[in-house]
Design goal:
This protein is an alpha/beta fold. It folds into 3 domains: 165 residues, 3-Layer(aba) Sandwich (Rossmann fold), CATH 3.40.50.970; 158 residues, TPP-binding domain (Rossmann fold); 175 residues, Thiamin diphosphate (ThDP)-binding fold, Pyr/PP domains (Rossmann fold, 3-Layer(aba) Sandwich), CATH 3.40.50.970. Helix content is 38%, strand content 15%. The strands form 3 sheets. It has a 6-stranded parallel beta sheet, sandwiched between helices. The chain has a 6-stranded parallel beta sheet with strand order 9-8-7-10-11-12, sandwiched between helices. Helix 3 packs across helix 17, helix 11 packs parallel to helix 13 and helix 15 packs parallel to helix 22.
Length: 545
């Protein structure tokens, strides 16, 4: 039997350490599926929709730090991946979409070849940093190398590989592949010395650490520097777990809190690492200028100074930069004890005030979830009221790569992100969802059942798009198009092979959660919010024109 282009793709995935790939089989990718299964080094996870599969590949990449792969069909299958690639690009996630294409002799002829997509490459290029589309079988290996090398150069990013169907069947030469060493920017020694001097001499230092510290595996270096400087550390949503949130220096994801911002206002120096200071909804965070001298370190030079003026910028790999700065600091001035005390008191006050706004029932639900999950258990959240009010900030996170959410602000990716994370790690995973976002990818319950994944799905059911309903009422004094009706998600889950139950009290939730955690496989808990004590919703200020 000849060695084909499809065999080369299967070999590449194996050599690159891709243990699982998500996909939907089609006439335009059947050779790839067959080759992967014949080789036996990569397990294909059959998803129910290409968008969900791409989100799952994203969750896989975030949980491992490696490559998440989605195999799609050309045309409609690939167009379905675009939203997932958009989210992966937003989150700086190494997601690779492999797709087919019409035969090369018909490609670009507009002859109505089934699933032809004449402008598929520019479509993918809109959400990927690198797209390769070889037109000759001899170029396939180089195209694979090119997309993977790009994903490991500088800031992680998604990529796509388009392979015409005849090249998948074509005979090619065998070759091996190797995961590239990440191409990172080494820190400039003069800049390191300058930053070390500024940090060592400051009396009131604060650190803001983002997802770049996680993707750069620099959390240990960040913690070591923070402890040497005795500097309080904020983490962004994507940076949570860089410092365990029960560490005394941890300020958590509270940088945008008015109380915390006021508490650090007289800082001498803000050290920002691996964050672009995303401005958020309505751009309100653009007004939160980092206090004191801003030292910004990022692997992407274009990010430095983009949102806020950086007084000192260093384009470099986070891990290398932090280690070099730490080594260059000998005897730093102690961080002002009164400053630190005031910051920590503000942190505790903000936490207490936010918890009080959750009402009587939701703090108990949150606490029982945290007790049920081990410290390294995975906690995934969709964009929903529960995420905004407690999942994004109040729920303690203790390690990097144990939490994720839709960075782009999309609703719906939570469930498939969790699928990818649990496939990658095999660890018990909890995902919290609103009912509106859950219905985007509810059919992935069938995927969860098929592979008996240890995933606990918590659907906070308020019969609509709760966040948008609140925003409409806040801004316009009325609501429209946000009521969705009452769904029985436990019954839906059972129809697809996932056991579950509907609960209407904290006690019933705790009982269901205990059962869900003890099970080896999946479980769905449909939480009827109508019967729970309400929480005060406080997501963002009213729009100011």
């Amino acid at each position: 039997m000849s060695y084909t282009g499809a065999d080369l793709i299967a070999r590449a995935l194996a050599d690159l350490g891709v243990r699982h790939a998500f996909g939907i089989v089609s006439i335009h990718n059947m050779p790839i599926f067959d080759a992967i299964n014949r080789l036996g080094a990569t397990q294909i996870i059959d998803v129910r929709h290409e968008q969900a599969g791409t989100h799952a590949a994203d969750g896989y990449a975030r949980a491992t730090g490696g490559i998440g792969v989605m195999i799609a069909s050309t045309g409609p299958g690939t167009s379905n991946t675009v939203t997932g690639l958009y989210e992966a690009e937003y989150a700086s996630s190494r997601v690779l979409v492999i797709t087919g294409q019409a035969e090369t002799r018909f490609y670009g002829k507009a002859l109505g070849y089934v699933h032809e997509a004449e402008r598929q490459v520019p479509m993918l290029a809109a959400v990927c940093r690198r797209v390769e589309s070889p037109r000759h079988a001899a170029r396939l290996g180089d195209a694979i190398d090119a997309v993977v090398r790009d994903m490991y150069t500088g800031r992680p990013a998604p990529a796509a590989l388009e392979v015409p169907i005849d090249l998948q069947y074509a005979e090619v030469a065998e070759r091996a592949f190797a995961l590239p060493e990440p191409v990172m920017i080494a820190p400039d020694s003069a800049a390191v010395a300058d930053i070390a001097k500024r940090l060592a001499g400051a009396a009131r230092r604060v650190i803001v650490a983002g997802g770049g510290v996680v993707s750069g595996d620099a959390h240990e270096a960040l913690q070591a520097l923070a402890e040497k400087l005795d500097a309080p550390v904020f983490t962004t949503s994507n940076g949570r777990g860089i410092l365990p949130e029960d560490h005394p220096l941890s300020l958590g994801n509270y940088y945008a809190s008015a109380g915390m911002y006021q508490a650090v206002a007289d800082a001498d120096v803000t050290l920002a690492v691996g964050t672009r200071f995303a401005v958020g909804v309505d751009g309100q965070q653009a007004r939160l200028t980092p206090p004191g001298t801003l030292i910004q370190i990022d692997v992407d030079p274009a990010v430095i100074g983009r949102t806020h003026r950086a007084h000192v910028g260093l384009a470099a790999d986070a891990g290398q930069a932090l280690k070099a700065i730490n080594a260059a600091i000998d005897a730093p001035v102690p961080n002002d004890a009164q400053f630190n005390q005031a910051v920590f008191e503000a942190r505790d006050g903000v936490r207490t005030a936010m918890r009080a706004r959750l009402g009587e029932d939701f703090p108990r639900i949150m606490d029982s979830l945290r007790r049920a999950l081990p410290r390294d258990g995975l906690f995934v959240r969709d964009q929903t009221i529960s995420a905004y009010n407690w999942g994004n900030q109040q729920f303690p996170i203790y390690a990097p790569r144990t939490t994720m959410n839709p960075t782009s602000g999309a609703i719906g990716p939570g469930l498939p992100l969790a699928v990818g994370a649990v496939v990658a790690t095999g660890r018990k995973t909890v995902v919290i969802h609103g009912d509106g976002g859950f219905m985007f990818h509810a059919t992935e319950l069938a995927t969860i059942a098929q592979y008996n994944l240890p995933l606990v799905v918590c659907v906070f059911n308020d019969q609509g798009y709760g966040v948008l309903r609140w925003l409409q009422d806040t801004r316009f004094g009325r609501i429209n198009e946000t009521d969705l009706g009452k769904m029985d998600f436990a019954m839906m889950a059972a129809s697809m092979g996932v056991p579950g139950e509907r609960v209407a009290s904290v006690e019933a939730f705790e009982s269901a959660l205990d059962q869900a955690i003890r099970r080896d496989g999946p479980y769905l808990i449909d939480i009827d919010m109508e019967h729970l004590a309400p929480m005060e919703i406080s997501i963002m200020p009213k729009r100011r024109d």
